[in-house]
Amino acid sequence: MPRPDDDTLKTLLPLLRQLREIKGVREARPGAFTVRGASFINLQAEAGQVWAEMKKAGGAGFDRYPLATPPEHRKLVDDARRRAAALDDE
């Protein structure tokens, strides 16, 4: 799936800032985040919608998160904090 264009990423700046603040999470390129050098969260665009795919706990695949509303943003950030902390404890 294609990554969101720059204009779409600009609309997601508050979300991106929150993801950048999570301990252990690094932004490899706009909209692509890693933990310990491994893919963690990737933002994607599909049919006019923006989605995030986040590595599942245990590392077997990815969970998909819609990003159309602020509550959806909060869910992604909350889950990312939990999963990043769990990876940091490993």
UniProtKB/TrEMBL annotation:
Please report the name of this protein according to its UniProt entry: Uncharacterized protein
Q: Which organism is it from?
A: Piscinibacter koreensis
